Amino acid sequence: MKKSVVFLVIVVLMAFMVDTALAAKAKCPQKRKTKKAPSSLYKKDMTSKADAAAGKKIYDKTAKPMACKMCHGDKGDGMGKLGMALTPKPRNFTCKKTMKKVTPGQMFFIIQKGSKGTGMVPQKTLKDKDIWNVIKYIQTKFMK
């Protein structure tokens, strides 16, 4: 009897751990009702002149009020330490179904202005060049 109870407890715990791991996986695709950028910016793409290495530094460390990776994660999947507590979850840059609909200009607009109803706050300390560098990094690192 004791062995069967112990076995049952182990099975239940394993099922719980698998369920938790699956629930923590980044959702794809993600639905958003983010305000659309003005058409002139929506179509803009300055990433050809941007520096992905400089964007990585900003994404990982220097963006204010906090580094992008704190919410979007090291893998760009929206599973950063702070992002886990947010509803809705931060943008999953690795989700091709979602990101194919987000233009570089739209990304610029969201980084610069924030996204109402989400945890994405305006990045007021970043210069335009810095934002394009971050977008270039996101495109080359996570949107493959």
Question: How would you characterize this protein structure?
Answer:
This protein is an all-alpha fold and 144 residues long. It has a single domain (28-141), classed as Cytochrome Bc1 Complex, Chain D, domain 2 (Orthogonal Bundle), CATH 1.10.760.10. 49% of the residues lie in helices and 0% in strands. The chain is built from seven helices and no strands. It has helices at residues 2-24, 39-42, 52-62, 69-72, 96-99, 104-113, 128-141. The protein is globular and about 70 Å long. It starts with a helix and ends with a helix.
Question: What is the gist of this entry?
Answer:
The protein has seven helices and no strands. The protein has helices spanning 2-24, 39-42, 52-62, 69-72, 96-99, 104-113, 128-141.
